[in-house]
Design a protein that fits this description.
mainly beta, 26% strand, 6-stranded antiparallel sheet, 9% helix, 11 strands, 5-stranded antiparallel sheet, single chain
Length: 217
């Protein structure tokens, strides 16, 4: 059996993980060039739900910093993987495929813990950045932020997961695929920011109806 170790997550939440793996956090319910869905001409901030109306607002500056920092990954999944991001989910409906960097903890606007990619055949395009918290922040890390949740779940080497209330309830292999168990995490609070793909449901909405065409990968 693989050696399991306990990782401490962002201020006190412990999760079991195989060496080299870590917790993940796609919301549940609730590179160097621009990808083809974006244009070089920015839309007025007021036209994007959840964004401030002033181009010099704190939110605008933070979003600009996040976009600049993640531009190298926009259409370059290979670089993201090289820099430590690993696949942790299959394609999730109206979200995409989630890739986690286990070395990143806490909140930094230029260091998202998760990159959410839209998959079309063998091509991947960055859609959203995502951050994870052990509990809902008392002060939103970004103005007007909205949050989602991901239930306690078991995760497997092939990116599949099974919601379970405790690690002891996790099958040691994924029942349908036979993939090995890698880690379990408790209930997590998530924050999506759709900075690389427009989202008519809102900048912070967990899901995006415009990425529905990519739901089959």
């Amino acid at each position: 059996m693989n050696r399991v170790r306990i990782l401490r997550i962002s201020g006190g939440v412990a999760a079991a993980a195989l060496t080299g793996a870590m917790w993940m956090s796609p919301a549940w319910g609730s590179a160097d060039r621009l990808p083809p869905t974006m244009t070089a001409t920015a839309q007025p901030a007021a036209s994007m739900p959840g964004m401030a109306t002033s181009h010099t607002s704190p939110l605008t500056r933070k979003l600009a910093a996040a976009r600049l920092a993640s531009a190298k990954y926009a259409t370059n999944l290979g670089l993201a993987k090289k820099n430590g991001y690993m696949q942790i989910t299959p394609v999730m409906t109206n979200m995409g495929v989630h890739f986690l960097n286990p070395k990143i903890s806490g909140f930094s606007v230029t260091k998202p813990q998760i990159l959410v990619y839209e998959k079309h055949g063998k091509s991947f395009q960055l859609g959203a950045l995502e951050w994870v918290f052990p509990s809902k922040p008392k002060t939103p890390p970004l103005p007007g932020a909205r949050f989602g949740t991901f239930p306690a779940a078991c995760h497997y080497a092939d990116g599949n997961f099974i919601p379970k209330a405790s690690q002891s309830a996790c099958p040691m292999t994924e029942p349908k695929t036979g993939a090995k168990f890698t880690f379990w995490h408790p209930l997590l609070i998530t924050m999506h920011v759709w900075i690389w793909y427009p989202n008519p449901a809102g900048l912070y909405n967990s899901t995006n109806p415009l990425v529905a065409p990519f739901n089959k990968g």
